Amino acid sequence: MLIGKAPEFKSSEITPRERFLNRRNLIFGGLAAVGVAYELRHGLPPYISTGVVQASSKLPTVPSKYAVGEAPTPKQKAITYNNFYEYGTGKSDPAHYAKNLRTRPWTISVEGKVQKPLTFDIDQLAGYRPLEDRTYRFRCVEAWSMVIPWVGYSLSELIKACNPLPSAKYVQFLSLDDHKQQPERPDSYDWPYSEGLRMDEAMHPLTLLTFGAYGETLENQQGAPVRIIVPWKYGFKSAKSIVKIRFLDKQPPTTWNDQAPSEYGFYSNVNPNHSHPRWSQSQERHIDASLFPKTIKTLPFNGYANQVASLYNGMDLNKNF
Amino acid sequence: MNNNVIRLLKPLVFVLCLLPLGVLLRQAQQANLGADPVASITHFTGNWAMYMLLLSLAITPVRRISSKLAWLIRFRRMLGLYAFFYATLHLATYVFLFSGFDIAGAFNNLRIHDFHGIAEQWRAVWPVMVDDIQKRRFIQVGLLAWFILFLLAITSPQWVMQKMGGKPWQTLHRSVYAAAALAVIHFAWTLKKGNLEWWKDGLVLAILLGLRILWSLQKRFAQGKPKVAVSR
After folding, report:
1. CA-based nearest distance A298→chain B, Å
2. Region of residue B34 (left: phi > 0; alpha: psi -120 to 50; beta: else)
3. Which of chain A's residues have a Cβ under 8 Å away from the Cβ of B39?
4. CB contact under 8 A, A292 and B104
5. Which pLDDT tens digit goes with each residue over B56-71?
6. Residue A50 has pLDDT above 80, yes or no
7. Beta bridge partners of A279
8. Which end of chain B is more exposed for a tag (fewer CB within 10 A), N or C?
């Protein structure tokens, strides 16, 4: 039973050096988990118990047939070069300013066109299905790319457990909106950060509910404790630090599309033939272990065309960019 | 400030203005340019071109505020040339790194004297740049700003000024205001919508240009009635 399980953690997990202050969060996290567990009588059955997972702690993973066999970008580069505007607009800002993000306790609520609104605790969610090693190509809309070994399971697993109604055609993801934890956040945007997918995109097995990377829990600047990864779309489509998932019958408003519709389409599939108004998307600076990234050709759907191109059959991809 | 001191200060300022480039080269040598060195170098050189340009534009207002600092005029040309220097590095970063030009391959070909190979490498990225110049506003205004600085740089020697005559030379060199405004617009347009990182540069430029406008209006009023009568 969940109530018995949630506060179980080894003492070694409680006080790693710099995490001392987090002890308080763990205590409240445990209390919150008990409270949430009460609500969750009919929620997710845990597949494995991960206990309380902390930033930079190892995650047990299984291999996945969806992983690409490319060499990952060194972790140090992947966690110091991020777009996460809640923590500032500079690429190195998130690594500095996301430090204060509290990832426990953390709940994700599910609402909208579902049989019944649900609330999940993050650790329960992480333990619901086996966590897979999914090394994916990652293409930023700014024409640089990385290869990241994400850890998670297909979002479709969670969606199935949420029992969406037949009228649910879109899924919206809302990120944490807490100015106190995000002091560097520019006021020139409407928060919270919102992203969305069409239902069939969200149900595609490649779409990953992501809890970790490089075999460990996500760093705060990567969108801890849970984010989406949609590898065939530009990076901004993959919402970070998710607190709410909404099932909708209409296309949801999304942050960048609202800001500049001519630059960031709702679909934003990686497409070398459709330029961003301010730069070509035909090539990308590939950030790997070398000092100077090589410029490589960008692939349609970021190299995932075989798996996902059929989702867009009959659509004009220049119009629906 | 007497001439001797200025003569001593000049090399010092010259070296000081080279320091940012030194920092950049040092970071490159230590592999300390971040995950995306091309973007880092682009931002670094662009920022310093802007700072040098704003510094050179600050000299006239500062002299006006304090007559004790009148000697600063002796450094204005150097600062302006440094603005051109960093703007050129910025442009070169775009041409040889940002465009996707295979610079390592080009160096290799240079070593083995394969100039045909270099031409091929050049042809691979040329369409990308042409496309940028034709389609992208921020590239157009940036290039125009650089071109203005280029014109000012090649007309900066004393003998060119004498040859041109003071008045035409001054008229030409007033286009530095346009170059600075274009530079700020270029910066603002490179940023994503809602990203207001450019506001500090924009504010400094607005103050520097605003003071000039204010003073020229004051001068006009001090001279008495407007010279041209308004007729109906």
Report:
1. 12
2. left
3. 91, 144, 285
4. yes
5. 999 999 998 888 888 8
6. no
7. A276
8. C
